[in-house]
Amino acid sequence: MLRELLRQVRAGEISIEYAEREIDALRIEEVGDFACLDLGRRMRCGIPEVVLAEGKLPSHLADIALAHARSSGRCLVSRISREQAVLLRERAQTGGFMVTCHDEARMVILSRGAEVRQSGGVVGIITAGTSDIRVAEEARVVAMEMGCRVCTAYDVGAAGIHRLFPALKKCHEAQVFVVAAGREGTLPAVVAGLVDRPVIGVPVSTGYGYMGHGRAALASMLQSCSVLAVVNIDAGFTAGAYAAQIANLVVGQ
Amino acid sequence: MLRELLRQVRAGEISIEYAEREIDALRIEEVGDFACLDLGRRMRCGIPEVVLAEGKLPSHLADIALAHARSSGRCLVSRISREQAVLLRERAQTGGFMVTCHDEARMVILSRGAEVRQSGGVVGIITAGTSDIRVAEEARVVAMEMGCRVCTAYDVGAAGIHRLFPALKKCHEAQVFVVAAGREGTLPAVVAGLVDRPVIGVPVSTGYGYMGHGRAALASMLQSCSVLAVVNIDAGFTAGAYAAQIANLVVGQ
Amino acid sequence: MLRELLRQVRAGEISIEYAEREIDALRIEEVGDFACLDLGRRMRCGIPEVVLAEGKLPSHLADIALAHARSSGRCLVSRISREQAVLLRERAQTGGFMVTCHDEARMVILSRGAEVRQSGGVVGIITAGTSDIRVAEEARVVAMEMGCRVCTAYDVGAAGIHRLFPALKKCHEAQVFVVAAGREGTLPAVVAGLVDRPVIGVPVSTGYGYMGHGRAALASMLQSCSVLAVVNIDAGFTAGAYAAQIANLVVGQ
Amino acid sequence: MLRELLRQVRAGEISIEYAEREIDALRIEEVGDFACLDLGRRMRCGIPEVVLAEGKLPSHLADIALAHARSSGRCLVSRISREQAVLLRERAQTGGFMVTCHDEARMVILSRGAEVRQSGGVVGIITAGTSDIRVAEEARVVAMEMGCRVCTAYDVGAAGIHRLFPALKKCHEAQVFVVAAGREGTLPAVVAGLVDRPVIGVPVSTGYGYMGHGRAALASMLQSCSVLAVVNIDAGFTAGAYAAQIANLVVGQ
Amino acid sequence: MLRELLRQVRAGEISIEYAEREIDALRIEEVGDFACLDLGRRMRCGIPEVVLAEGKLPSHLADIALAHARSSGRCLVSRISREQAVLLRERAQTGGFMVTCHDEARMVILSRGAEVRQSGGVVGIITAGTSDIRVAEEARVVAMEMGCRVCTAYDVGAAGIHRLFPALKKCHEAQVFVVAAGREGTLPAVVAGLVDRPVIGVPVSTGYGYMGHGRAALASMLQSCSVLAVVNIDAGFTAGAYAAQIANLVVGQ
Amino acid sequence: MLRELLRQVRAGEISIEYAEREIDALRIEEVGDFACLDLGRRMRCGIPEVVLAEGKLPSHLADIALAHARSSGRCLVSRISREQAVLLRERAQTGGFMVTCHDEARMVILSRGAEVRQSGGVVGIITAGTSDIRVAEEARVVAMEMGCRVCTAYDVGAAGIHRLFPALKKCHEAQVFVVAAGREGTLPAVVAGLVDRPVIGVPVSTGYGYMGHGRAALASMLQSCSVLAVVNIDAGFTAGAYAAQIANLVVGQ
Amino acid sequence: MLRELLRQVRAGEISIEYAEREIDALRIEEVGDFACLDLGRRMRCGIPEVVLAEGKLPSHLADIALAHARSSGRCLVSRISREQAVLLRERAQTGGFMVTCHDEARMVILSRGAEVRQSGGVVGIITAGTSDIRVAEEARVVAMEMGCRVCTAYDVGAAGIHRLFPALKKCHEAQVFVVAAGREGTLPAVVAGLVDRPVIGVPVSTGYGYMGHGRAALASMLQSCSVLAVVNIDAGFTAGAYAAQIANLVVGQ
Amino acid sequence: MLRELLRQVRAGEISIEYAEREIDALRIEEVGDFACLDLGRRMRCGIPEVVLAEGKLPSHLADIALAHARSSGRCLVSRISREQAVLLRERAQTGGFMVTCHDEARMVILSRGAEVRQSGGVVGIITAGTSDIRVAEEARVVAMEMGCRVCTAYDVGAAGIHRLFPALKKCHEAQVFVVAAGREGTLPAVVAGLVDRPVIGVPVSTGYGYMGHGRAALASMLQSCSVLAVVNIDAGFTAGAYAAQIANLVVGQ
């Protein structure tokens, strides 16, 4: 459009003043475009947009998720309830979308059926106990959605390290680890002390009494002498996306 | 004294009414005695009375400590400053007491020179880092004062467990363990998972930032899946006395 | 297996290089065995493995508990709900296990019917109020599971000490005390001031308002001048196991 | 002045309109007076105004205290430092005031020499430890300033109650008790359980670690099952004034 | 009984040794009696024993409350739910007790029908808002149970003081005030600044967001410059009992 | 009335003494009036009185709201539940009031049908996410009730600023901004950095884990380097009223 | 520059392709300019940039402040220490700047001597106590720097409102109020209940014990029923700038 | 050694039983070796061991640091004071080590003069303000020590993003970003929203009042919607090491 304007200036079809105003207007539009392009921010970072289901009416959620799915061909919904999922599945299938449910992760994926392109990145996900699995699963689904292969070793045990060695062996191809743990939350630091890969600690909201609900776990991960980065309590999505970002970077994606 | 009274009653030397009043008085005195005996409560539990130096003027401290030493032949002073120690030593020596200084423990013991009778109890004291030693030393001095032998393994490291095995071997005779750790404070739980003896966790006020100053350590010890009991942050005295109480109980003291 | 290898080396049946590789492999397996032996960690410490029912689906819980029961002949389930207990009982009885329910402790024990061997250890359990009993019961069941005899004195009263003396008398054989108290939680310190045995304080999540839900109790136990060790709020299991560990140690178990 | 106005109205010396305006003005002044009388609020409640020295420059403090002393004949200064006290004493003596220093209470009283009139009220002040005395002394000085007689029993001990009985006996005339305690702060509840007089608990900022600096004491006093009212941590002034208010009320002052 | 023993000693009917043992036994019983008298502690302080219904099964509650009512002729039950109240009423009426329900206070009183003897004490109870009434009512019922007359002025408003003056006028006979307030909780301090009687502040668990649920109210009452004593959040019982204790003391009860 | 009194004085119809007493009485009434006028405080500040529905029985709420509506012609009810709204609507319509429901704001307005007079003030309300809308709507309804026009731009997004520029453009007439944001709550500071109008930050109780439920948002708004004022978490009413107060002030209302 | 480009296009001096590239480059520069203009953000909002002295070396501070002063003719330095001020003054005077020190506000202003242009805005600043003055002074200096006239009424008293009325009268021209208060921090709410102008509450870090250091004040301001906005504890700068922003807006600046 | 044993077995020089015992012993040594190798854990992860100077006596620190330097040729000392540095430098130079001081990072490096081998990894470090630089510098030194090239952009500004774009451009080669920010701590989330590389947020202990000292920054980073990992407040070492670990992984180191 700028070129056409310049052509008209050259041809004397429009005045210089008029062209100046038009170009100014264009610039303002560019600012708009800049903003719009920014809409693609998360996509550009290789991180899928996620719709948080928590606190949304089932019908609202379905509207929002379908709008996302229509515009980008794919939509991740997190922390979805059974009731929300029922309506979403129905609405999505009517709308011609494939629906994949990850119950333990409390996630649903709408897609046009296309497989996620494999990036070659490998993420290892380890949990201390069984209660940490729901958070780990959220991380797993996101990492897979970002093209990574995921190796998991759940319920490795916080107290004894005997189950940790085979777990690490099982995940030996991982370029990065997500380690989820509640209560005193020491497993991430232990793993970080044993592997030469980045470890992301996820405190899980288990444990009661003093500093329960994941706060002791968050505290011990932040205070740890090991080299370890941390996300918020129960933040499986962030952990999974962060890990996949690293893994994809390592394999040159 | 009651027997003498009864004798006098029998002998008719005193009236029944008089005896009744006297015995009532005796009972009241007994209550007093009961109270007084209660003065010996800590001693009776095998735990020495300790004078907390913190916040006391040097001269006041010296007065109090010497009074204790005079009445019971022995006096433990804890959290003593250099300035307080100088005056106390001088005054105590003038008063004929032997003065033993434990600098790292910030403790001073006044005594008439008698050795503490060995109970046969053995306490193991382990620390994660070098900053935990001052707290461990407080525990050590108290446990020794209670007749126990103490094996120590300091600076075992929180991150790796490689220095822990020789430490445990070194302390294999211990009937009970005191484990001091700051920052994320995971060592006590690790030890409790490896030994079949009671473990007392002592959080140490190290670490900065979120839940620093021993609070993360306290939290992770309380939240731990291991079977572990805990004392307050930096409470070396309590940990040492508790451990010695158990050890002495085990050896039948 | 090593001996056979060595025999073959001697016999020239295998090459030295081959034997070296095999022995290396063996060592790695040993590491595995070491790990596996470690599986017996808790058992080795005399502390039974417990399955935390809280947050598990009834069918999952039943699977896990039965697997434990099958492998070790016995299984403790804690914090079990009525709904979980109904299914567990049914499944366990079908599976030929005896089921013992401790309603107030919210615990269920699966066994092959064998009695727990008596260790000779005696644990005293005292509670300040009636709301503390559920936590005390959890401690009691665990201590009994570890072979101890338990004397209990519930609802001794925090405010007045008049009910404490007969309670202590009743528990005079105890080698160690568990004292559970909510609200201001002062009873454990009072008991610790009166007996010459180790006392384990258990804060109970009662009390409302400022520092309610057991936090004031935890705070006052940690701040106490008495020699006292503490476990997490409502941590009946840990308190009971810790007490039994001490009692069994004292009686030479 | 109103009467004079009305006289002038009657005498026809001023117009009704003028009188109306004047009376309106008077009312506004009355509002002022109301305000001014309100200045006497604290005095009216029988509670002396106190000047908090903390954070004031010595010369500013002296100005303010002398202004108070000049207007009301008497002035209480609290939390005064040595440096502030030196200048205040000098300035006050120059200004013709008698200066009474209460070192442990960190208070100074300026007066014209008149004795405080005895109200007949009796306040009992008890402390658990020696570190609580500075707070207790602040309470004592205020209560005496309000005309009460004060019986004190300091360092009664938190752990054992044996020193409490003679203390209570010593204070048997008290109509109300102030009980100061740090660390776990249980003494006020114990006293409240033994006497049939109102007890005011004052948490003292001692104790370290979890909930140290008087917060555990505050928590346990608020959570206590005993009938007990509480003031802020270290609030000796408030406790003393509140107690004296009750005592004076009881004796009809 | 002692006299009889002494008589037998005199008469030579029993040996001195036997008498000594008997008198020792007597002393021990005395200790028991001392304890037993202590059972009357709360009663002796003029404060009725209360049964906290919260968290008790309806049938357990009924058992406990009736036991209390039978032994002392009267029983207060607090924080009772509708379901608990239904059963209690039924059981109590069957047992021949009169049942008085105070719905807003969530209290039930069992009695033999006797009126509480009027002490002559007068307690003023003021609330800032309507949400504070349930706590105020708890205080009112307790104070009346202790023989006091209660004047109430509810919903006086925290923001404006215009409704406070008639409220204070209405309560001019009160010897002591209970002032309940939630959110920012400033009313108790305002009242304490206007009356020359002791004021007890009760923070009420209203308000959301930062320091909601009564914590801001507690904080502002403790920090207040006014002379004011405070009880725990929602502690209507304690406030009412403390106020009645003061009022009864003032009228010489 | 004063004038009439003065006339009577002049006319000699009443004595000066009598007039004096009457004028004194008048003054006391004035104090009453002063108080009464104070009743109009909120109205006088241009801020409508609001009835908080939360925690009130539907019938009580209806009584209170109708009383307000009858006395001032209009009544705002906030945080109303569906059940409360049903009864209120019915009762209000029977009583001849028009009922306007704002569902998302959880507010109901009773009125005699009169439109709110437009002040000319304009308030801009921006939210970061969809979960913030309920709080924003509360602010919007209040601001409109105070005569302001409100421009809203909801769900502008916290992470990217691309949707913020059109939002600000849309609200360019606003004299003041309310910006609601949960989780990390950074939007208000961003807006305050871009506009030359006062910005009021409202933290919204979203976000889980560490400092969730709006506390992180409150913290980051208070810590912000931008010039920004803040209200309590979820305090839509206060934010809206504060904004309208400023807007109305700017347009000279 | 664009116009020149267009002229060259018209004149055929440059190719269209070249012009397109140049204009693209220009746009990128514009983005730069946009950024640079953004440098003027604070100025544009009418809020002066401030240099926080706290934690800076005296020489660093002087460098930074002089750079600011040179570029914008004026520089505000806040939280400056005596030592920092001495060097800054010396360096600034050497550099030809006028130096104005506001000791109590701990602020220094460097300028070329030009007076701040009066905006006509009027800000009222009120403090509860004398300890709040340092914060109020910080607000005052900023508001004056933004062209406002400031009326102050310091030490109005939190407990009694008698000194508040003349204070409000004195500030009757203010379009907005800053009210600073520590401890329980109730004054801002009281003022907000009495004036029909926006009130900004500033909690001041006074008060000790539970929720001391301004936290109780912050809590009670946020919980207040009055319509009130709040800034961070001790945030005098923000309060002053926010108030001046409103005042200047009202007077059309 | 095993091979030699096997050779001897083959040669019949030793018995099979003897060999068995020797190999068992070897295995035990292996366990020791495993432990010893574990000593190299941090090194193996590519992360240098660091000696925390804080709280160590200058002479102790020098001993420890020199021991490290001697055993591994290189030693990093962090959080070193001026006094400690003076002695360390002297002792290290005497010992033949090269000493590199990083004053702002408060770090000292002892080495034998060898340059760190460049890994090819590039780390971008950005700070919001000047107070964040000390933490950023700690990260920088560590990352360089791990062979990375570091691009820094300090004092980018939290409020405006205008300085951020050139900063990001400057760091366009970075494979990973460390972003340090205090107060409200929003910069890391903003950067994470703009780049497609992993971002590590470091809260810095600046800011006063509510949630000051880095806690608000930590909270807003953990609550952020951006994909972001976090380390403890002021944990520059961890952030730098974690970033270098990622960068080195990306470049295949």
- The helix content of chain A is 40-55%
Class by helix and strand content of chain A? alpha/beta
Shape of chain A: globular
Number of discrete helical segments of chain A:
10
Count of individual beta strands of chain A: 9
Main beta sheet of chain A: 5 strands, parallel
Radius of gyration of chain A: 23 Å
Note the gap between the termini of chain A.
Answer: 34 Å
The two chains with the largest interface, and their residue counts, are: D-E, 32 and 35 residues
Describe this structure in words.
Eight copies of one chain form a homooctamer. Chain A has 253 residues and is α/β, with parallel strands linked by helices. Chain A is 45% helix and 17% strand. Chain A has helices at 2-10, 16-39, 41-44, 58-72, 82-94, 133-145, 164-170, 187-192, 215-223, 236-250; strands at residues 50-52, 74-78, 98-102, 107-111, 122-127, 149-153, 176-181, 199-203, 229-230. A five-stranded parallel beta sheet of chain A has the order 6-5-7-8-9, with helices on both faces. Chain A has a four-stranded mixed beta sheet with strand order 1-2-4-3, sandwiched between helices. In chain A, helix 6 (133-145) links the parallel strand 5 (122-127) and strand 6 (149-153). In chain A, helix 4 (58-72) crosses helix 5 (82-94) and helix 6 crosses helix 10. The two termini of chain A are 34 Å apart.
